[in-house]
Amino acid sequence: MLDKYKDENEFYSLIGIKYKTFMKMVEILKEAKAKQKQIGGRPNKLSIEQRLLMTLEYWKEYSTYRIIAKKYNISHVSCIRNIFWVENTLIKNSHFHIPGKKILLEHKVTNNNLLAIDATEIPIERIKKSWIILVSASK
Question: Which of 5, 51, 106, 121 sits in a 20 to 30 Å window from 62, CA-based?
């Protein structure tokens, strides 16, 4: 599945992370899946790589769950469940966990290292229903 990317630069430009980071994420998710498999349950339709790609696509493009689910041929509820699982699994791992605000403020910045997090939210512009009615009535 990952063979379709010509090189690491193409992978980075399309996916948004380096191939090495992607493989580290896959490794972490496979370990978590192995622990989860011991408990039992129904097997997932998607592979670990597909679930991670789906999550990265959601993060990068901010598409709706329904659009992403259609691309992967699953229900939107399964899409939500898979994305949440990947997010929560990666957050719990120390490699991809950002320490809390108190810890960041306590440590002094050394070697000109700086951590900046953009957490601004921009409201989504939606078409007003009255405008849709006016457009369809004029046709």
Answer: 5
